[in-house]
Amino acid sequence: MSSMYGENLRLSVFGQSHAPAIGMTLDGIPAGLPVDMAALQAFLARRAPGQNGFSTTRKEADTPEFLCGISDGFTCGAPVTAIIRNTNTRSGDYDNLRDCPRPGHADYTAQIKYGGYQDAAGGGHFSGRLTAPICIAGGLCIQWLAQKGIRVGAHIASIAGISDMPFDMTDPQIDAVGKEFPVLDTEAGEAMGNAILEAKSAGDSVGGVIECAVTGLPAGLGNPMFDGVENRIAGIVFGIPAVKGLEFGLGFGLSAMRGSLSNDPFIMSNGEVRTATNNCGGILGGITDGMPLIFRAAVKPTPSIATCQRSVSLSQKAEQELIVKGRHDPCIVPRAVPVIEAAAAIAVMDMILG
Amino acid sequence: MSSMYGENLRLSVFGQSHAPAIGMTLDGIPAGLPVDMAALQAFLARRAPGQNGFSTTRKEADTPEFLCGISDGFTCGAPVTAIIRNTNTRSGDYDNLRDCPRPGHADYTAQIKYGGYQDAAGGGHFSGRLTAPICIAGGLCIQWLAQKGIRVGAHIASIAGISDMPFDMTDPQIDAVGKEFPVLDTEAGEAMGNAILEAKSAGDSVGGVIECAVTGLPAGLGNPMFDGVENRIAGIVFGIPAVKGLEFGLGFGLSAMRGSLSNDPFIMSNGEVRTATNNCGGILGGITDGMPLIFRAAVKPTPSIATCQRSVSLSQKAEQELIVKGRHDPCIVPRAVPVIEAAAAIAVMDMILG
Amino acid sequence: MSSMYGENLRLSVFGQSHAPAIGMTLDGIPAGLPVDMAALQAFLARRAPGQNGFSTTRKEADTPEFLCGISDGFTCGAPVTAIIRNTNTRSGDYDNLRDCPRPGHADYTAQIKYGGYQDAAGGGHFSGRLTAPICIAGGLCIQWLAQKGIRVGAHIASIAGISDMPFDMTDPQIDAVGKEFPVLDTEAGEAMGNAILEAKSAGDSVGGVIECAVTGLPAGLGNPMFDGVENRIAGIVFGIPAVKGLEFGLGFGLSAMRGSLSNDPFIMSNGEVRTATNNCGGILGGITDGMPLIFRAAVKPTPSIATCQRSVSLSQKAEQELIVKGRHDPCIVPRAVPVIEAAAAIAVMDMILG
Amino acid sequence: MSSMYGENLRLSVFGQSHAPAIGMTLDGIPAGLPVDMAALQAFLARRAPGQNGFSTTRKEADTPEFLCGISDGFTCGAPVTAIIRNTNTRSGDYDNLRDCPRPGHADYTAQIKYGGYQDAAGGGHFSGRLTAPICIAGGLCIQWLAQKGIRVGAHIASIAGISDMPFDMTDPQIDAVGKEFPVLDTEAGEAMGNAILEAKSAGDSVGGVIECAVTGLPAGLGNPMFDGVENRIAGIVFGIPAVKGLEFGLGFGLSAMRGSLSNDPFIMSNGEVRTATNNCGGILGGITDGMPLIFRAAVKPTPSIATCQRSVSLSQKAEQELIVKGRHDPCIVPRAVPVIEAAAAIAVMDMILG
User: Fold this and answer.
1) Would you call B224 and C8 a contact, using CB atoms and an 8 Å cutoff?
2) What is the ipTM of this complex?
3) Residue of C nearest to D114 (CA)
4) Which site in A147, C217, D1, D224 is 20 to 30 Å from A335, CA atoms measured?
């Protein structure tokens, strides 16, 4: 099913950008988790728009209303459902998208798939707004994982080709990246910010890469072949709009290396088996090896740009120019960082429960 | 489940490298497909080892025996099961792997997960040999897709950092890459071959990138969010041993672009809606847009290398050097090309049946 | 997952009896279905309590609020989510159930499974109230099926051992049973009503059997073995609280027959292949044969009765008497009839979409 | 998928009655189970035909060949695949079934579903012969469950309306029913046998009911709603050919009772919470309560009978008489008993692993 994910922990995401509400159901979350609503709200705030010059000026409270699954402050074993009401909508901006699809968006493919019945306003169910429910679910999972000593942290690895410093995945670094513009190297962050603003002033947009680590995982999680850690992570990460690439450990970088360098030597460290390097991203044969799980996701530039673009009129079967209206992020990468963390947390918790 | 894939077309892969047999069951394949066994065997031959100096010298016939699901030469609607007997095994080569895991292999993670009961010989269920059953299944799917005008073709995009020419995904190019060493640029192919042989003579190995295209797909295939084309392709491609990265269209390349360049403009072409470029790899919002589906998979260098490596003795909890015995491919990329094609075909057929 | 059902049409049910809301998400419903809200509300009214002396006197509006998935009156291809707010709750009635479980209810098993964190009020997620979301989903499916000439109808086959007349599954009979107390034989219905009232006045309850038919189905729906029509129907019908038995066609009655009588002879009828009888309930080998699909579900007596019962104190590990408070249906069979119809519709539509 | 079952333990059944082989893959079985092949063979022998006058005179060795998943006598964590070669086939007996379908069989529905490409010989994939692979899988699960103190036992509750004595599910009774004609009451067994022979001599067949118990289960297994114990058991039991009804505890009998009698009072027994009766079959709210799990399955009479039956010629669209050739069981109930045990074991083990 398109908007459901997971085997033992099952996420269902629902809503359209301009429907009465968006939301999520998380089925299978164990009973007894004390839910820290303030921490959850702080996590969601990292994804919310309107915080700085890099994102859309739309203001969205993004405060979830929990309808069920939490009783007296603890998960009760029943499915948890939370919704966010959509309030600040401007449907008029999207009137013509059914006929003249925006390049880089799902307008055209939705038109084909749903025969014109899709909710085109704001991208409908394809909107980046649907990542808010993913963050609600992921925020709960992060709290559950924390109880087991498992942490999830992500940073902006690059924006517009400008790279952050390496992420060493220690607790201080993970603490450091839990912020609005999650980079480790302040100067690089400023350069990224400038690149975003330049693109914005040019009516354009930029993309980037997000790097995520999960630490504290036991060895032995995952399965061979089609149920490996990579497959599970990919199954949710490619569900985040604009993600077009995913690599584990050194990923594509491994393709140009020799085995003598890419292989991670086993060592003993404080009586534990570890690897001297972690080029494989903590996964061998689809199964965790006790080192941090590391992956990187490529995020394409925001397709909604202010400049005139080539498109077609579907009704007239003719080419036509298009000016996309509305308020859009010139770069969604910063706001996508907590979404990637949420996705990782959901996938990892699902595997642990398996 | 670890070794099953698919929703409407369900693949089950079974076997270990040195068990009596390996094989696969393909459940859900529609009745009435005439099976061209010669074409299937030719497809399997592209994956089989021992063909040239780039691969292991083990000889494996890899001739499947079909146990059921085919009646009078046609699929009959029942699950199709085929097996390949393992004959040329040398179990003695792997005796010490339970205690001293090979770097880059699943020996250690299997030991943790299966508590010492894993079949360590030849990598057991984690062996690259298990890609033969994937090719049996994929070979059948390719025949089914061909009836609908859908073609699958892949080439070696790079080995050891040496790149092939761009793949334009026309029928002649797809015809051209259906061979043992599938490159378009002969000179680049020779350079790749030399890089492989150099690594081999150094007791080392190299990796590469495989690029795959599926042409003839209708627009509208796939789903939003977690059931998109990317998620489905990823779910099977990350099941192929040694794949550590996956990107669609320009993938990671998109992360450094601006939206005005990365967006694919819509155009009219012979009365059909098309895009002028195909940076998105034929997928918008998880749904095909009628352009060729394009993806690239990063393959790490063969972890089995002849040089001495650092490892540990699990029983003695001490570091220990390891020399991996056995015959191994200095580069598995050429043999992995048909596996990638098979995986793509299985995923696409599953989506079409959905 | 516990509260999700379906393969191609995926239902997620959420909520607890006394949580802020209950609801459902239906993912995979095709775009373009015009939703008749009045017809849906009328269908839900058949399940709503407080209509007559046979059910609890609690009044519940059971008016769903649709949060998403419907745009301009049509399904838009995105998941449909609807919720019902819980307003008329009396949590105080259930304070002691965590320690002293009600016989016949899930209080004890929930206590074991959720370690005391379950929401015990009103039965929590196990409450019969959760059948309202099933009816929302089923009501939508019934409308979709009606467009294809497929009808779903159920009647009370028996209550307290008193049987209705045979259900011939013609359109007039299906029309006739779409009512609050769905019997065909008025006299039998009166006798059933008396049996319910007698039980009620004795502080007791009664059970019954519901018979359901689906007409207009094409032959060829379903699959062999574990994905047959029976399996699919069972997967959802056993999710309805209090259902403890399920049979297709003559079901258990077949076990005492001879094959020469139980086999349904094939005949030609108006140029179509039909069977002279329909002892198999329209299913052969898990696949529909073009005759009406028929099944019967056994519903146990309402476990909440007013008389004193034997139970235990879990904290004191001692036997203890229990008086169940609250308002309860002396017989839930009439209200369960539309739930069975809803379940059948969901299962059948899922199979058609498969 | 039609021939796959399970979530955490996944069974795939393949083969047709007259294909080269039938078999099964069991994916997800934990590593380290010592497989007692003699015990497994003895279990399979209970299902094998040709043992007495009640079953077909075909002789089938039904000795599985294990292809993988077992290493040095222990499960190794990889999928277990076993096959049984089909040797004693008489395809000629079934030549006309494609045109003139046997009443009570899947010939007609298979013809519709597979468009004439189905393997009609011996019922193809719909054959009762496919229960042999279920028994291989179930036999392994029974051995795994036994290690945890969980036992599975079933007896013939009735044949042709003649009932066995009540099954008290103690170890001696479970021991007693592990035999070729599993009844507790010898006289009833003789009467059943006579009923079978009478039907046989009349060219007819009889059905029956099988009752199964699983003892030693912990409380807390299963889930609410659609993932309850009943749903899981139903999902596999309705995959056994000829099963047309299923009930838990008193099942349909509950429908005529009052709540004061049907409710199982909680009691303390040796410091444990138990119920005084077990009318609910050990399941409350879809979750086990620590009492034996009890269910009964209705088995229809063998549809293959020797007497002339009414059928149709599909090609001529005309009614036609049919004499079914071949050797058939006049009653499959005795041979279905181990199949029901196998199904119960698979379902229960899958739930325990969940």
Assistant:
1) no
2) 0.96
3) C220
4) A147
